[in-house]
Amino acid sequence: MISGPSPPFISFLLKDNQIFKWKLNGTEISPKSGSHYSLSGGNLRISHLNKDQDAGTYQCLASNSFGTIVSREASLTFAYLENFKTHRRGSVSVREGQGVVLLCGPPPHSGDLVFSWIFNEYPTFVKQDTRRFISQETGNLYIAKVEPSDVGNYTCVVTNTVTKTRVQGPPAPLVLRSDGVMGEYEPKIEVQFPEVVHVAKGSTVKLECFALGNPVPSITWRKVDGVPFPRKVDMRKASGVLEIPYFQQEDAGMYECVAENSRGMNTVKGKLSFYAPPHLIEKPQDVQKLIDDSLVWECKATGKPKPSYRWMKNGENLESAERVQVANGALSISRLTLADMGMYQCVAGNKHGEVYSNAELRVIAVAPDFSHNQLRSQTLVKVGGDVLIECKPKMSPWGVISWRKGSEPLRESNRVSILNNGNLRIWNATKSDAGLYTCVARNQFGVASSTGSVTVKEPTIITTLPSTLDVTVGESVVLPCQVSHDPSLELKFTWFFNEQLIHFGSHGGFFEKVGGQHSAGDIMIRNIQLRHAGKYTCAVQTKVDSISIAVDLVVRGPPGPPTSIHVEEITDTTASLSWRPGPDNHSPITAYTIQARTPFSLGWQAVTTVPDVVGGHRLTATVIDLSPWVEYEFRVLASNTIGTGEPSKPSKQARTKGTSPKVTPANVSGGGGSRSELVITWEPVPEELQNGPGFGYVVAFRPRGATGWMQAAVPSAETSRYVFKNESIQPFSPFHVKVGVYNNEGEGPFGPVTTIYSAEEEPGRAPTRVRAKSLSASEIEVSWKALPWNASKKRVLGYELRYWSRSEREDTASVQRTVGNQTSTIIHGVKGSTTYYISVRAYNTAGTGPPSTTVNVTTKKPPPSQPPVKVMWNTSNSKIILNWEQVKALENESEVTGYKVLYKKNRHSRPNVMETNTTSVELALPTDEDYIIQIKPFGEGGEGSSSRQITIPRIPGQWRAIGSASKVSTLSALSTIALSFTARTSL
C-alpha cells in the first residue's frame, strides 16, 4: 500500500506537441523499454513497486511551445507492520488498589496504528472507562486502580489502518500481591500530551490524559485563558481524550488536564499551536503585451507561518536582474522583449507546504494598425477654444507619428503641437484651423494612417448678467438665462440649485420651465418658500462648449424659531425668560410673542408679559399673572414685517412657587342624608388653583341663629362632601355653612355663607281613602287623600305607588311616583283582564313613609284585536262616503262601542278624529291635498287595531265647481276606480 499526499495536478492547458517529464528526488526519471516506469497521457505509472527504490518525492514537468511548468511535489511512502519479536513476557505483580501500566511496545511499522487489548482470551477486549484507558499514542494499557477482577492475561493488538493488517503481542499476566492492600494516594498523571502540539487549520486534534490513583481520579479539561469550549469539542472516553475538530486560529492556546480525587489533585499543561499551509488569494493571469511594455504580476497567499514567495519561468527559478524584479510575491518586468515570453509560476510556501499558480506571458510585435481605433470622423471646436485629436494606432514596437493637414505636412507653431504620445493639440482655434487632418504611424514593420475633420463653430455666450434677486415668501419669480450661439448647434439648458440638479416636475411643483424661445432657458419658481433661498446655476451645453451663470436668490420671510429658551427665575406668579434669536430671514425681527402651556391648559396660550410688548431688540421678558404651584412650559415666537415665524422648542418644565390658596369651592350645597346628619357638598377646587401642596378644605357650620362656628378639616383635595352627624340635630334644621381652603403655605379665605338643612325624617303617616278604577284594559286611575304638611319636619315631597298583579310578589312590585301635593294619577301599560293590588305611601328625602291600605282593581277586557276590513269609499254631492264591515270582539275582548276615523292631508300633519257608533261616515272631498285615512274600533277596553291606511286622491279644481248630475256621476265613477288600499304605518 502507498501512503502520502494526493498526486500532483497541473493547471496548464497544453497544446500540440506537449511533453511530460517526471523527477524523483530531483532526478529525472527516464521511462525506457523494460523499465517499471511508464507514461500514459502525462500520468506516471509504476509497476512492481519497490519500497527501497520507489519511495521518495515526485514532481511532474509539462512543456509545449509556450513554455514549461512544474507541478507541486508528492511524496510516496510504503505502509507496513512487522510481527512482535518477543514471544514471552514476565508477570506484573501489584497490590489491590494500586495503579498499573501495561506496555505494548509495538513492532516496526509505517502508517497509522490502532491499539486494543485482549483480556484473557479472544474475543474479550478491555473496555475503557474511568478506571481503564488505552493510549492510541503509545498503545499502553493504564489501570488507575487495580481490583481483583482485573487479574488475568493481557494481550496488545496492533492494527495498521493503511494495510489493515493486525498482529498480537505476547500475553502479559497481571497478578495480585499478597502483602496487603494499597492505601489511598493522590493522582499521578501517566498519560500526558506534549508541551507544544502543532495543529493544521481544519484538522482534528486529540489530546490524551490519564492518571493512576486511589480513589480513581476524575479527569477534567479546561482552557487556561478561561474561554469555555465551543460546542464542537468532544470530551469522551471518561474525559481521557479531548477532541477538537475543524481546528481554527481561535482554538489555539494553552490547555490543561486536571486529575483529582479525594487525596489531591495533579495537572498537566500543553500548548496547541495553530498553523496553516499556504492558500492563494491573488493569482497572476495570462496576459498579452506589446514589445517595450511593462509587466506587473501580483501573487498573494495566506498561511501561518506567513508564506514566502518565489517565481519560476519555464520550470526554472527566476532571480531579480536589470529588468526583472522579484519582491514580496510581486514580479515586474520592464521593456518587454520577445525573449520574455513563456510560462511563469508563482510558488508560495511555508514549512507546511507549497502552492503553485501558473500564468502565460505573450509578447507581440505588429505593424501600425488603425482598424480598431480610427481618428474621430469629426471634431467640433469653438472659436478660441482648445482641441485634442487623439491618434492611437496599435503597433509594436512603438514607432514614429506624423500629421498632415489636407495633403500638406502639418507645421507646428505656438498654437499647433504634436505631443510626445502622438496626439495633436490646437490652442485658441480660429476658422482657419478647420479642415481634414491625417495621422501617419510608422515602425520597422509598416506604415498606416487615419483621417478626421475639424469643424470650428461660433462660441456660445450667455447674454444675461449675473444678479441677486430679492423676493418674499409666497411670491413667484423668473430666473433668466438667455444666450447667443452658433445657429447650427442645439442648446441644452440645465439648472442647479446649490449645486444639486433640479428635476422639473418634482420638488413639489415649485419649479417650472418658462423659456419659450430656442435661445432662452428661463425658469419660474412659484410660491417661493424659505428653503428656496440659495445659489441657482444655469448651465448651457452644446456639442462644442458649455458655460454657466449663477443667480443668488434671497428669500425674505417670517423669522425662524428662537433658540435656547431658558427660565432664569420663577416666583409664585412670575417667570423671567431669556432666549436667543433665530434667523431673521432677511427682515429684521420687530417683536416677540411668549406662549405658555400647563398640564391643565388646552394647548399653548398667549401670556401677559412685562414689558407688555416685547420688541425685536429684546431677548428677555417677565411673564406675569401665572398660577402658583403649576408646572409651566414656555415658548417664544418671533415676528417681522412679513409675518410670525415658527415657535421655538419648549423650555424645560418649571413649577411656580406655592402660596396660600385664594379660590374657594363653588356650588356649596347639601341636605339629605340619614337621621341626625348634616350633609355638606361642594365642587372641588381644580388642581391648577390650589396654589401648593397639602391642599384641603375647612368646613365651618352652625345652626341658624347661633353665633359660634364649628369647624372640620378635610385634608383631601379631591373630596367634595362632608357629613356632620350628631344625635342632637333636629330633622330638617337650617344651618349656616361656609367652606374655606388651606395648603402647606397657609390658610385661604372662606366662601360665602349658604343655608343647608339637616336630614329630615321620612313621613310618619300613610295616605287614606285610596281608590282605584280601571279606565281601560291598559290604564288604572288611582286617587287618595293628601297628608297635611305642617311644622313637624316630616315633609311630603310626593307620593309613591306600588302595584303588582295577582301572579306577582309584592317585593317585585312596579313603582310610580308623583311630585308635590298631587292626589291622583294614572298607571299606564298594565295588562287587560288582570287583577292588580295597589298601595300608596308618602316620601321625602329621608325615604318613604308607611304604606296605605292595599286596594285591588281588575282591568277591563282588552280592546278588539281585529282591524276593520273591507273599507270602501265613494263620492256623492262633494262628499266622501266611507263604509266598512262591523268588527266583532272575541270572547276575551271588550265589546265594540264605536269607531274612530282618523284622517289627515299629508303624512306630517296632525290627524283629525271623527267618532261614530255606525260602520259608515261622510267626509268632505279633499281639495288641495290627498286624504290619508285609518279606522279604529274602540270599547271600554280602549282602542283596537287600526285598518290599513287609505289614500284618497285630491279632486282637480275645475271639477269642484261643476254641479250637473252627469258630471257628478262621471266623477263618482272615476273616484270609485281610484280606490286605494295602500298599506301605511299607523297614524
Automatic annotation (TrEMBL):
Gene3D superfamilies found in the cross-reference section: Immunoglobulins
Alphabetical list of InterPro entries matching this protein: FN3_dom (IPR003961), FN3_sf (IPR036116), Ig-like_dom (IPR007110), Ig-like_dom_sf (IPR036179), Ig-like_fold (IPR013783), Ig_I-set (IPR013098), Ig_sub (IPR003599), Ig_sub2 (IPR003598)
Name of a matching Pfam family: I-set
Is this entry keyworded Glycoprotein?
A: yes
The record's keywords, sorted A to Z, are: Cell adhesion, Cell membrane, Disulfide bond, Glycoprotein, GPI-anchor, Immunoglobulin domain, Lipoprotein, Membrane, Repeat, Signal
Can you give the residue ranges of the Fibronectin type-III domain? 561-659, 664-761, 766-862, 863-958
Q: What GO molecular function terms would the record report?
A: cell-cell adhesion mediator activity
Q: Where is the composition biased (Polar residues)?
A: 650-662
Q: Where does the protein end up?
A: Cell membrane
Enumerate the spans annotated as Ig-like domain. 1-77, 82-168, 187-273, 278-362, 368-455, 459-548
**Some GO term, biological process aspect, for this entry: which one?**
brain development
Q: Name one GO cellular component term.
A: side of membrane
Please report the record's description of how this protein sits within the membrane: Lipid-anchor; GPI-anchor
Q: Where is this region: Disordered?
A: 641-675
User: Which CDD domains does the record cross-reference, listed alphabetically?
Assistant: FN3 (cd00063)
Protein family per UniProt? Belongs to the immunoglobulin superfamily. Contactin family.
Assembly description: Interacts with PTPRG.
The entry's protein name is Contactin 4
